[in-house]
Protein 1
Amino acid sequence: MQTVLAGAAIGAAAIGWVIALLARSEGPRPPGWTPVPRVAAILAAVLFLLTLPTAKPFSAGLTLGWGFLLGAILGVIVLATGVAEVGVLSAAAVGPSILLLVFHGYPNEALMGCALGGVFVAAFARVSQGREIRGVETFALAMAAACVAARLGIEHFPRVVSTSSTGAYWALPGFMLAIGALAMAVIPSNASAWRPIARGVGAAAFALLALYVLQAKWMEELRWLAPAVGIVAMGFLAVVFHLEGEGDGRPVLPAFCGALVTLIAAPLAFRALQGYGLALAALAGAIVAAPYLIQRNGLAAGLLNGALGLFTLLATGRLYVELTHQDHPLDFQLHYNLLAIALCVGAAFALPAFAAKSAQMAAPVRMARAVGLGALLTLVAVLLPAIWAERSMDALIGGLAIGQVAWMALAAWSQGDDRISALAGQTSVVFVAAALVGLQLESLVQRVELTNGAKTGIVAALGVVVVIRLLLDAMGHARPVEGASDEAAS
């Protein structure tokens, strides 16, 4: 059943991709093979070479590296072709489906690599350009949700007992995306402001119907309520954000309500099918949101992107709990959580400022800054487990989720140029990338036992770096502008 569903997903995705390419001539001109996809492809190749070791956090058989390479290739293709929502969802469905065919027995690490490859390309494009390039972030979040869902399916439905439906749960996320993309291709599109929302909800409802049929025939443990929660939540948020986010006001209340709806929907989906259900709800939400995110660029689309990123972060956090089987002790966990919240909320404000400053620089400098930001995220993902030990990822992912809420509030509150800067520094793919990197690297870092003195030294060194950076910024702001005194004198 796993092979059948994965093969069907690839076939349906191929049809959707052809339809998307044929329809591309009616839309805006595709970006083409510009410097951004070229540099992203080169960096992806370099990172693939770095995954050649077989010791953790890498994997025997290079499955992590091959997964990363596939996800990055798909991301670069979406980046260069500029396809619409049908092509974006089709490309997102192909990644996990191919891996389930190639690495049939053990796709675990390959799925995580695929998710990392997709969000890497999207995060690089966002940070280097200060804006989204048509559809690549929607692709990255949808494929990350599909890979996380497949990985949670492996945890919940292992092949302990060989049945025809055992592997079907692994392949279901990719199949769900592919069916949603095909259904979206059938639903006509027009200039109506509400059409993107209607197309997304209609396509997701058709995918839900396909899940219902599968449940009735083969997959008795599947609970259709879980993805239904994602459809209702994201459909409701799309309507609210569209009504409240198109003007020049400050719709902070709708932004917080959006985060609240997401945080309420997550446990409802979890109760239906635990972590697997939560990931299916995020996946259904991605299908609902895709048309609006690709056809719109304003605050409403930014807030919907934020809600989708929050859903994906919650699913990723649940995967971490499943993989580590932690019992969440209460000794220093609260302290870790509070510190992570402070760091990640600060990042929600720092990323827009970073994007605004990068926008004033030349393209090579922007790309170099994007690479530096990626290195910083990796450093944080390594240092937190080294300092906080086994409970660091709980705090980090929780802080990232709250940082996502803070960014949504910031985007809603800001106006004019500030809103442009906030939307340029959207946090979804960057935060999801940080969560996935931390999830993969934590097992390596935990084997390194540091003394309390060494941990104190690391914190002190970081403090010195921060102080020096703040002093340099203060000196830069205090430096008088040339000609200012002459103008004052005149």
Protein 2
Amino acid sequence: MQVKQYSQKIFSYLGVLLFFCVLGNAPALFSESKAKQKLAQQKNQRGVRLYQLNRYAAALNAFREASEKDPKNAEYPNNAGMCYLQLSRYREAAVLFQKASKIKQLPLYYHNLGLAYTGVGKGNAAIQAYQAAVKRKPKYFDAWSRLGLLLMRKGDLPQAEKALLKASSLKRSYDVENFLGVLYLQQGKLQQAKVKLQRSISLNDKFYMSYYNLGVVEQKRNKLLAAEKNYKKCLGLNREYLYAYYNLALVQAKIGRRESAKKSFQIFIKKAPPSMERMVLEAKKRLQSLQEGKYKEL
């Protein structure tokens, strides 16, 4: 009986002692945690400076060290993921953006995850990531515009149109207007396509793709002089855009500018890479018919 009572007193005393020991260590533990967070912030700041100097591998190491010191801070894996994006290591980037978005569901982290998924060719996953971003931030221009482009690539033109029109309502962008022009071109809505492409050019008259796409629209509308003009403007901005040479040659041949058409076909044939072999064979066939004076629409 006495032993039992004595044992109870011992355990009671040990419990009180343990309680005070924990309380006694709490300020030290709290102080250590704060120190780690401060060190993590310093590592992160160093990483940002290195990133701005385009030293992505060194910045990546700094962000990793920051994340090790403070694993609950979502900013650090996100920043490391951005380094992987710059290094074209998209799989590693996706892992870190997933980690960041699990810690804190910021629209930016879902947007960046969409970039990484796009890089590895996971279009559907990227679409879901961008949808998550705009759900949390309805006025997120970058996410809407990239979502629209991916939906276009997928062939979902109605949803792509909605996304791109939303982006267009948020910000004046020659890129978005160009995408809308291409979308309407694919739908056969040539007048709407023309309006959007002209708007793109009004926002940036140095963007060669808008001129090329407008040339395609005018060619389909059988406005051949306008098509020729836009293909030439495209090539004036980018002499290496080979599709413009090919289409320009087709237009020039059709409107009777035979010598100009020959020259355009010759430039295309000379510059075209092996991947365009089929188009090169077609161009050679058309060029030969021009040289023989027997050209007709093939």
Protein 3
Amino acid sequence: MDSLLLLHGVSIIQDETYPQPVLLRAPAFLFLSMDRDPFSPVTKVELRWSIFAFSLLAGMLSIPLMRLRPMDLFSPSRLELLGATALFWGSLSLLAFHFFWENYYQYIYPDRLRPLAVLNSLLYGIIAWTILLLMDLIGQYSVLVFLFLGGIEGVIEHVIAIYMLGVMKKVPWLYGLRTLPVLLFSFVEYVTLWGLVVWIALGLRAFIQVP
């Protein structure tokens, strides 16, 4: 959801000539989002732009991975992939809890959980291991299968957030959004994020193999 908050800010930074959101300015909004009005709702147009942007990012990350065919990342050891998972999700959680607590997480989590963000390293390590066990079960060891299952995990995570934590009713900037587009966004968002995990795993492998 914090990714959606990040892209929501793109529509605030408008180009004077073009009324539509300028997606290329998204990185600049990373710093402005901390001070934005948390009660400004995400619009349907912004959500569509977010889905489009993350779909592009997912494709940019996954297509080269298919050509590289890093199949051995899913071998019995799997240490690089699990290490990359812990490193990425632990760091992302620390940053998200730091920058987006007031705009998002405070509405669904008590303050005492804020220092525990780093434990997501362990949680997502377990999730990654579960995805790998599912790949063992179905006998498929391709990057596409891993990213697809990662996207499904994101959908499940957002279903829990919506129906058990009530984020759509508690977080002001999510008011009025329909569930299905948000779940579609969560799929492409998590395909992108798990794609980054695979790239980090490849980087770790290259680093370890340096003589």
Protein 4
Amino acid sequence: KRRSRYRPIDQYAISVRPSVWFSERDGFRVGALEFGSAFANRYRNSAELWFNTRNQQVDYDLSYSDYPLTWIGKHTAFSAGASKTYGVRVASVKLGRSYRPVYFSLSAERSFNVYAEHMQFVEDNFPFHLALWERRDMQVVGMEYNYDEQRGDPLRYRASFETSFLSRKFRFTKI
């Protein structure tokens, strides 16, 4: 988490920094990263934008989250994002709820999330040779339950269900 001790709690704060790095595949990636938040991180956003010098493509990663959504219930969060990296465009939304028996203690935290994603190939730039859903759109919906014990010996448990039953051509279900 990026925090500044001088950031006002009742105003939106934004930080921007440049980003330059090199990879064999993309050449130099030149870009900028932006992070913003307000009201003690209740509203958070990030935007990352890169230009790949070798393949002359622009990649991005955008996200927004709102926690808590008090009109639904305490400890409920919403997030949305869009990205295009390595020729795959992804848009997603997620709604989740955290549960803790005694909130201000170190007891186990439980969370339940539902989400939906839309993925699509948009360029011949995917780094893996065998993508089962080549040249197709894919819609995925899912839910997950997380259990995270934070005292003593840490115990983490995750159960998830995900399906692409909305896709016309490539379908899968995983538990």
